[in-house]
Design a protein that fits this description.
Number of helices of chain A: 0
Largest sheet of chain B: 6 strands, mixed
Low-confidence stretches of chain B: none
Shape of chain A: globular
Helix content of chain A: under 10%
Mean pLDDT of chain A: 93
Structural class of chain B: mainly beta
Strand content of chain B: over 45%
Distance between the termini of chain B: 41 Å
Oligomer: heterodimer
Mean pLDDT of chain B: 92
Distance between the termini of chain A: 37 Å
Order of helices and strands of chain A: EEEEEEEEEEE
Largest sheet of chain A: 7 strands, mixed
Largest interface: A-B, 27 and 24 residues
Shape of chain B: globular
Number of strands of chain A: 11
Number of helices of chain B: 0
Strand content of chain A: over 45%
Radius of gyration of chain A: 13 Å
């Protein structure tokens, strides 16, 4: 069974802290994605990666960075968390060779106080 | 640029009634289209997808969708809604065939009345 896991379901951090959100997939997918989801705004793409060590900015990359050192793991980094980064963060993976369907993790609800 | 529009932000239907959620896309070539569902506090789950062939696509949980090229639409339907269908629904189109990047609509929240 296909699986995408995220390191935390709920996370509370203080303003200015460095925050790591981890995502792991077990499907050998080459593509991985980070989204944030806010009420009324749908899913907005932050960053994506189409290969190890490769990354591209999505629609809202400001304030975020990513790391992909291994094919199965894609990390989202908030260098200095701010209250406007309080959101639901969703990770997904896909393979270009099989329909582009994205498989999603359960999400991390991050609160920055 | 590719885009997806879901005109209805919120829909309420009675249990047992039929359902249609609208999705319009903007894409130059033949689109690859998806419908996802998100239950409260959960990730997204694929309901169905369209790539080519039969324009009426069957999905999980009794859902179907019809691709209409002339109307640039991919509406989701269910003949009889169950209370467990209350969720948020997202339509998406493949924005890049190189990276698999998807373009999502803003979502439609479905409420089901008993």
């Amino acid at each position: 069974d296909v699986k995408v896991t995220q390191s935390s379901r709920y996370l509370v951090k203080r303003t200015g802290e460095k925050v790591f959100l981890e995502c792991v997939q077990d499907m050998d997918h080459e593509n991985m994605f980070w989204y944030r989801q806010d009420p009324g705004l749908g899913l907005r793409l932050i960053y994506f990666s189409y290969d190890v060590k490769m990354k591209e900015k999505g629609d809202i990359p400001e304030g975020y960075s990513v790391s992909r050192e291994k094919k199965e793991r894609f990390s989202l980094i908030l260098e200095s968390a701010s209250t406007n980064q309080t959101s639901m963060y969703l990770c997904a993976s896909s393979t270009t060779w099989d329909s582009y369907e994205q498989y999603f993790g359960p999400g991390t609800r991050l609160t920055v106080t | 640029a590719q885009s997806v529009t879901q005109p209805d932000i919120h829909i309420t239907v009675s249990e047992g009634a039929s359902l249609e959620l609208r999705c319009n896309y903007s894409y130059g070539a033949t689109p690859y289209l998806f419908w996802y569902v998100q239950s409260p506090g959960q990730g997204l789950q694929l309901l169905l997808k369209y790539f080519s062939g039969d324009t009426l696509v069957q999905g999980i949980k009794g859902f179907e969708a019809e691709f209409k090229r002339s109307q640039s639409s991919f509406n989701l339907r269910k003949p009889s809604v169950h209370w467990s269908d209350a969720a948020e629904y997202f339509c998406a189109v493949v924005g890049s065939s190189n990276t698999g990047k998807l373009i999502f609509g803003q979502g439609t929240t479905l409420q089901v009345k008993p």
